[in-house]
Design brief:
about 35% strand; alpha+beta; 6 strands; 2 helices; single chain
Amino acid sequence: MEITNTFKGKAHGDMPDIIKAVGLTKKYGNKITAVNGLDLTVGEGELFALLGVNGAGKTATVKMLTCLTALTDGDASLDGLSIREDADKVKKLSVCLRRKVQLLRI
């Protein structure tokens, strides 16, 4: 049996990827690896959450995706913008997203 991720009747493959990370890695020095080769794809309209124990790399992942900290290896894109090549544009986009999230918390 094949399980398909759907949203409003469309398969994920029919929607553009809003977040796509390939091999995302964050190391602090030679001893601590916070994120190790993360591959992540989030389609338009999908909700996702990062869950894990303290020190699992959740905050490091979000900081890399929003260009608040440099990544060690890999790459990711937000709405088609590379966090390596288009960091200034990604920062503007992520600030807008954070403001919307803050408004939802009120």
